[in-house]
Specification:
Elements lengths: L1 H6 L2 H8 L4 H16 L2 H11 L8 E3 L2 E3 L3 E3 L20 E7 L12 E4 L4 E4 L7 H12 L6 E5 L10 H12 L5 E5 L14 H14 L4 E5 L5 H13 L4 E4 L17 E4 L3 H15 L4 E5 L5 H9 L4 E4 L1 H6 L2 H16 L5 H4 L6
Parallel strand pairs: 3-4, 3-13, 4-7, 7-8, 8-9, 9-10, 10-12, 12-13
Antiparallel strand pairs: 1-2, 5-6, 6-11
Helix pairs in contact: 6-7, 8-9, 10-12
The structure holds flavin mononucleotide.
Length: 358
């Protein structure tokens, strides 16, 4: 068994995947994850191989146990089809979506690119997803699932900006009793006008509405391309309006980061690391201890995850570097974190969160 499964090692799979067009590779990987979810022996094997569960890393938020602090970033599992497979890749929690009220195709292909020299990805997917009804059926089948699930919500492309609140209302109502937290996504660069909703009026209105509909914790996910002081202001407004936390950051539209960039879509992975960290740090400085902060953007090692934790992150997420390094990265980050915490004399992750500001 061990021998057969070693053929399925990520190094071997990557050689094949990287020869394929990125979206085709993603579809095939997805089929593999769905197939694995029907095979308990495989799930057990990979979970034992990649999932790190350690007292020092375990935390409780909003009544849920996060066995380790490394989650999957939104956009990989847009329809909630791989939830049961995520612990087998080592993730302590997952975020599904972005889901829109109605199904939509997303932008024209090609819309997903590897910037291999830069260990980065550029995507202009545009919320391709099967819609809220489909995702709700997936969640109903799983409920009650012993694994934290975030649901990332966004508006349909054809919905006018002036009508955007109605889309979010539909989504709050749909998911009010499912999953463990909801994320308002107004930071994707691939839905025209979406980032314009990152303003005080809209944020106040959407949190007021969300809080009236659901008792679920609601997070705001923000873009890395704002001035730090504007981003901090918006995060403070969100927290005052009832946000349970902030997720920073989404992909960047700073195409000057590399000569290999297209002039559309959002860049993630190694090119985003510093930009995402800098903005996260500014937010951490002001909001650490006042809300739950989740850091995402170019995290590729235990050291980088630890840097985010010390700047105020209770949890981190990974997406792009999973593509480059495979699930052993998630294990490496979790095991590395235990080592780094011990080295600094901490007995639990909570002692290191926000250490830069203590
Ligand atoms: C192909 C792709 C699709 C994504 N789709 C979404 C999405 O639907 N919703 C969202 O909030 N973020 C989405 N993201 C952004 C990620 O969740 C994450 O914020 C960003 O990629 C930075 O993290 P990373 O450098 O670890 O990838 C997507 C990223 C990629 C690469």
């Amino acid at each position: 068994m061990e021998k057969i499964l070693s053929i399925l090692s990520y190094e071997n799979l990557k050689k094949i995947f990287f020869k394929l067009e990125p979206e085709t590779a993603h579809t095939i990987a997805g089929l593999g994850l769905r197939a694995a979810s029907h095979c308990p022996t495989l799930l057990r094997y990979f979970k034992a191989k990649f999932f790190v569960s350690h007292d020092m890393l375990e935390q409780n938020f909003f009544g849920r146990t996060f066995r380790n602090p490394v989650g999957l970033g939104a956009g990989f599992d847009k329809n909630g089809q791989y939830i049961t497979s995520m612990p087998t890749l080592g993730f302590g929690f997952t975020e599904i979506g972005t889901v829109t009220p109605r199904p939509q195709e997303g932008n024209e292909k090609p819309r997903l690119f590897r910037l291999v020299e830069d260990h980065s990805i550029q995507n202009a997917m545009g919320f391709n997803n099967k819609g809220s009804h489909y995702m709700l059926q997936r969640l109903k089948k799983l409920y009650f699932f012993d694994y934290p699930i975030g649901i990332n919500i966004g508006k349909n492309k054809i919905t006018a900006e002036s009508e955007a609140l109605n889309d979010y209302e539909t989504l709050f109502r749909a998911f009010k009793d499912y999953g463990d937290y909801i994320v308002i996504n107004i930071s994707s660069p691939n839905t025209p006008g979406l980032r314009d909703l990152q303003n005080e009026n809209f944020i106040n209105a959407i949190f007021k509405m969300g809080k009236e509909i659901t008792t679920q914790p609601i997070f705001l996910k923000i873009a890395p391309d704002m001035e730090a002081k504007d981003a901090v202001t918006l995060c403070k407004v969100s927290v005052k309006a009832g946000a349970a936390g902030i997720i920073a950051t989404n992909t960047t539209i700073d195409y000057s980061l590399t000569p290999h960039a297209k002039d559309f879509g959002g860049i993630s992975g190694a090119l985003l690391t510093e930009k995402s960290y800098t903005l996260f740090r500014a937010i951490g400085k002001e909001l650490y201890g006042k809300t739950i902060l989740i850091s995402v953007g170019g995290i590729d090692s235990a050291e980088e995850a630890y840097r985010r934790i010390k700047a105020g992150a209770s949890l981190v997420q990974v997406y792009s570097m999973l593509i480059y390094k495979g699930p052993s990265l998630i294990k490496e980050i979790n095991e590395g974190l235990v080592g780094l915490l011990k080295k600094d004399g901490y007995s639990h992750i909570s002692e290191a969160i926000g250490a830069d500001w203590k």
